[in-house]
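Changelog excerpt: complex records now keep ligands as SMILES alongside chain sequences, and the structure block spans every component. Example after the change:
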Amino acid sequence: MSAPLLRVREIDAFIEQFHILEDVTFDVPDGGITVLLGRNGAGKTTTLRSVLGMTSVTSGDIEYNGQSIVGKKTHTIAQMGIGYVPEHRAIFSELTVQENLRIAARHKDDLPRNIEMIFTLFPDLKRLYQLQGGNLSGGQQQMLAIARALVPDNRLLLIDEPSEGLAPVIIEQVIAAIKALAETKTVLLVEQNFRVASQLADNYVIMDHGQSVAHGVMASLSQDDEIVQRYLGVGMH
Amino acid sequence: MTRSDAVLITAIVGAILSFSFISSGGNVGSFGITILSGLFQGMLLFLVAAGLSLIFGLMDVLNFAQGAYFMVGAYLAYDIQHTGGLIDVGIADPGLRFIVGVIAATLAGAVLGVLLELLLRPVYKRHLFLLVLTFGVSIVMLEGIKAFYSVTPYTWTEFFGIREAQFTFLGQNFTQYRLFVLAVGFALMVGISLLLNRTRIGIIIRAGVQDREMVSALGINVQTVFTFVFTLGCAVAAFGGAIAAPFLGATITMGTTYLVAAIAVIVLGGLGSYEGTAIGAMIVGLALAAMQQFSITINQPVLASITPMMLLIAVLLIRPRGLFGQER
Ligand SMILES: Nc1ncnc2c1ncn2[C@@H]1O[C@H](COP(=O)(O)OP(=O)(O)O)[C@@H](O)[C@H]1O
Ligand SMILES: [Mg+2]
């Protein structure tokens, strides 16, 4: 087995004086989709933000592609090939769809090179190209947020709750797109919707009260009613 | 700009012009004065407010030193133009000397802008510290000017071509210099707008106004964008002071006066909106000009100085987010 693309080792993270993450440890294998599961407030978003250096990590280590990234600046970490699709999307509402994509380019040819791939995944964006981001529907904004992370040649995508607040048909489109892009990229996904998570993920990590409490292969989790009940509080079917 | 924005702006400008017409007892010439003097002052105000607005939009901090950059620009341009000061460039042609003075002032503004930004770096996350620091810097700059020059107002006496030549508008004579300021200010207004709308750094600035954390998550070093915006904002303010000097001279109060009016401009225009800043500056300029005339008529000079804030309050009562502000 090849080395994991992302290794998170016993990290502690604080937001102001609050101790949010404690000894969080997990691996994200190179390729495929790893899903972070856990109840609201378990620390999933904070974990993604810690990887990107947006939350201060006070101890432990995070390695990306064999290199320690703890303490580095957010933009430096992102430039190493990590794309971020945050909770609530963070689309630039004053910018057009085109500008939202253009701003993500790290090299002049990033957008021209990848735009066809993006339009294939999200045909709607082609039609909406000159519209302001703020005029898009929730689903369209989600597609734009994912597309934005695909403009540069990122190797790892951190995607936070992509199905949140979307209609079922739109969720299906988003699932299909994430599946397709995971063929060439590694995805660390946060997903509350267990059905969506089990359709997409190869591996899982469960978080609870700011700690990583279980991990394994997604297919086996779907068989393990007890863990699911205990940490996620949802029935499987 | 929506239809209701356009109606509101037209109504405000119409009210100012009607006021100027009526308060002068129906004198058409006073129209000419209000319009030209108003646009002139509005343009100078815009040059202070543009940087204030961009810096506020990006970092949520009012740069209280913005007025001081305007003042420093005026003193440098004045000094270079007139003999017997600290700087003697040894150029005989007064027109050329003026151009050199404006360029020197703008460059000085840019350099001082970089320095200010460096000074603020350690406290970027603490807004109150930023506020106090920029306020402190403005006081240091003011005291510096007092030390190097004098507290007595300097009146511009070295005239040159366009500063002397006249033209007539609605029966009143004006110096062509007013048209020069309007043209140059307008060119800058359009130039900055193109920068914001057509270039990559402009897209980054507009995105950063909304969500700078997301901008850095895209791999962009927001810090260098801050430096750029500070440098641009301070250089434009110093440039404004330099081109204002042939009219206003150089005084130690001009920075504060323009800062206060510029704050009114950016709030009135809608915080973070460049369009709002540009239009707001013109509105405040016109209102100032109308009230300056009126306060001469009734011999009550304080009226003119409180005009920007009165206008601000009036607009905020009608529309709390300002003319072009986003609901936040
Ligand atoms: N800005 C903040 N200030 C204080 N506490 C926070 C802040 N953001 C998140 N938290 C706390 O951190 C914990 C983890 O939050 P988060 O990572 O967003 O959880 P999740 O994404 O799993 O729902 C929660 O208890 C939340 O209340
Ligand atoms: Mg979350």
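Residues 3-318 of chain B form a domain with the ABC transporter involved in vitamin B12 uptake, BtuC fold (CATH 1.10.3470). DSSP finds twelve helices and two strands in chain B.
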